[in-house]
Amino acid sequence: MNSSRDDRKQRGAHYTAPALAGVLAERLIDCVRRPFEASARPLRILDPACGDGALLEALHERLPAALGDHVQFEGFDTHPEAVETARDRLESRNATIGRLRETDFLEWSRQFAPHRQFSLLDDDTDSSTRPDWIIANPPYVRTQVLGSARARAIADVFDLSGRIDLYQAFLVGMIATLPEGGALAALVPNRVMSTRGAADLRDYVRRHLDLETLIDLGDTKRFDAGVLPAIVGGRKSSEASDEHVVSGHFVRMYERQSTGDPETDEKRVTSTSELLSLTSSGTYALDDRTFDVRAGRLRTIEASHAPWAIVTKEESDWLDRLRQTSAHTFGELCDIHVGLKTNADDVFIRDDWDELLPRLQPEPELLHPLLSSRRASRWSPNPDDGRRVLYPHRTNETGERIPIDLEAHPRARAYLEQHRDRLASREYLAETGRRWYEHWVPHQPRAWEEPKVVFPDISDEPIFFWDDDGRLVDGNCYWMTLRRHRDDLDLLYLLLGLANSELMARYHDLCFQNRLYAGRRRYITQYVENYPVPDPQSDEAEAIAELTRQLVETAHRGESHDTLEDELEAAVDRAFDL
Asked: Tell me: the pLDDT tens digits for 92-102?
């Protein structure tokens, strides 16, 4: 099939690797769990984004013999070449083909969608019979690629909010399209389990699908795409319910460094298919790679929109003990801010401002030192790297952030005018009523001078550090300031000590389970705000705050602090009665 990689990326089409296709087909069959008997009409099996037909072919190969030829394979895709390739593939297998055509599944499925009174297009839709089973690797396209108008229309139809991805609408549409008792198996980004943007989707799935399979494939790298996959499978609930029926196959797996020690408990598997079909916890080796596999139960933190986590019974008990001894969460005590985003960093952020012509050097009051991931280090930041950010905003008399007056800053104006075409091309800035030279996500200047804790959004381990010098924070980091009692430095030290502890790293991994390639963690607001906090007035909490203060001072002087960190870990364990 002739389809360029760029074209496929634009459409969100990432065709399914054979091993994953086979596992997805097996999980769909497992979800049905009933005798396979011929019925009065063929069993309709639909792939709503069929691509080259790999999933339908994999399912055809694995269907029980009892079904015989009493199965009809159907597929939709918006790319005509893909549809023809899928047809050729199925015909070569002598499969019975039903609807297999160039069709936009989202438009077709809106007749069943939560807000079906809205329409994405003006033409009539096909109201043919619902499929009995759906197998899918839906397209993954972000809001900014879809365009704001289409994204809003899709969100309205499928009752989603926020910055949606196309796969979210597909998953709602697939579940809505199924009849009661219909079966679904889909490959989706594993971010569906944890991100705030997928909260509406998790709530819909919880109410309409009896989940029987959830496999977080972590960083197993099965796709030629920057999307970490998960397999979701289940049966359409008999009716919408607040009861989350979960039973069956819940597994998470992440690659880790092999010890190379033949005496370890690593078990060897012989194929990717075998690895992805595991149902028991352990460490498994495939070729020269090693994977941690954990099988267990599915749980959320509390609310229906909360992240999903796959945990063993031991891990679940540990989380319960931790929550029972918690008095607060980080989000109750502090505000977590995203770093500034200019969307033109090489214009606004430089380390060579002094080398520009004098008339182009922005006024000194507009240039600020910057904390970024390159300066991130536990407890205290790495030395200044010389980078300064041109910050084209100020605070007015009422405390509001407003853009600077370029007429009052002629050197900054001259510099920015040199880059005007590029800065003005950020049309989304103009659409929000802002000026061409502003940052896309600016800070609140009034918060700069407050003591804060800064941390990179991606790192191998917790790297939270202290700043009380009023420095700005780059967009590859987050920062937190106290919500109340802003002068209570002991409370902020307590949060910093907890955030850098081994206990909190374990809590993070168990609850959010969104590790990136090579085991890197995401540290974002919706994760960190859920970190538990013991009673800040307890003796143990006061000990943590004091040890953290010493660690900040010791790290700032560049001295060794291993002993202090050991004492901190013990104090954190005591604070949570562990």
From this structure: 999 999 999 99
